[in-house]
Amino acid sequence: MHETHIIEPIIKGIVEHAKQEGGRRVTKIRLKIGELTGIKETSFRETFSVLAKGTILEGVELEITCFMAERVDVVSFDIE
What we know:
alpha+beta; hypothetical protein PF0899 fold; globular
């Protein structure tokens, strides 16, 4: 789960922003994962799911696209 150090700040930032907007739940997150990060999409999804448990992100749909870079970008997210 070497993705943990990448995913934790993403979760924290989205949760904080969604709560500031009065959101009760985040339904979808769009991410871009750089191919040069060495992150495998299946592992990322599994780790994200584990870390999101008990938050307003639990059960969120992840839409992931890959691009040529060494970073992970949050493109957008939907809140209710």
